[in-house]
TrEMBL record:
Residues 169-185, 187-203 form the CCHC-type domain. Residues 1-21 are annotated as: Disordered. Coiled coil: none annotated. It comes from Stichopus japonicus. This is CCHC-type domain-containing protein.
Length: 272
């Protein structure tokens, strides 16, 4: 069984040796409701008990810890429950540890009943069915993680709180829903943009692509210039050949005229 320890509340009795801490602990309850603010919880507690003997209202690991000035109010709230925004919330004494148990690397052939039986041996009371996690890309294949929600009570060391290990939060901004490597407040020192780190930066790749594109454009332009020069040279050679052909044609015409004149003179000589 694998689980993560969220934190331990140090006992005032260990530091001060007084019984006041034990008394306040007996006067404290857990309100199992995370989707509200302190105002809603305090108003609901006052409305349910009819008194305002509240010493503290603190949110711990997503749950509210209410401390009263006397143990009677704590006992009363545990017996009646609490209504917050039309939701009936469970109320548990602080003396009972609240955990969410997660199992990791569990083979598929292991039955949920076997996991429940093992927890019962440790003093747990299972309050929900087991949920099996699957791979995101293969939704029909289990990844070995199972957890029991909503809550499991277990006889562990006093003042021990557990959390679901799969619920992670960013180490940079302390917000949930993303890793620190994808934190919107993370700045890359290469491109000075937010949202990624330097080893994930694509700035160098983009610059290389731009350089390659510029080189290709320049190379094509140079080839086009060479092609235009060749065309112009070809046109000049063609014009030269045309001029030479024209001169040859003129020379041939002149030669023909001379030959005709000589032929005429020869005929005149015969007639004489």
């Amino acid at each position: 069984m694998s689980y993560a320890k969220e934190g331990n509340i140090s006992s005032t009795e260990d530091r001060r040796g007084g019984s006041k801490s034990d008394k306040l602990k007996e006067n404290s309850i857990y309100v199992i409701y995370s989707n509200s603010d302190a105002d809603d919880v305090i108003k609901a507690v006052k409305g349910a008990i009819g008194r305002s003997n509240i010493l503290g209202c603190v949110k711990v690991v997503g749950q509210w810890v209410i401390t009263f000035s006397n143990d009677g109010d704590a006992q009363l709230s545990q017996g009646t429950g609490l209504l917050i925004k039309e939701d009936v919330c469970e109320v548990i004494g602080v003396g009972r540890s609240i955990v969410t148990v997660s199992f990791f690397d569990v083979p598929t052939f292991v039955n949920d009943e076997d996991l429940s039986a093992k927890l019962i041996e440790l003093g747990c009371g299972i309050k929900s069915l087991w949920t099996r996690k699957h791979y995101a890309k293969f939704p029909h294949i289990e990844n070995g993680i199972r957890y029991a929600l909503k809550y499991v009570t277990i006889a562990l060391a006093k003042d021990t709180y557990m959390r679901n290990c799969s619920d992670y939060k960013c180490k940079n901004c302390a917000l949930r829903g993303h890793r620190d490597s994808r934190c919107p407040k993370t700045q890359c020192y290469k491109c000075h943009q937010f949202g990624h780190k330097s080893f994930q930066c694509l700035g160098d790749k983009r610059q290389q692509n731009e350089d390659d594109l510029n080189y290709l454009v320049e190379h094509m332009e140079a080839e086009n210039l060479d092609t235009e020069a060749n065309v112009e040279e070809t046109e000049n050679v063609s014009q030269t050949i045309d001029n030479q052909n024209s001169e040859i044609g003129e020379q041939n015409t002149s030669t023909f005229a001379v030959q005709k004149e000589l032929h005429t003179q020869c005929r005149r000589t015969r007639d004489i």
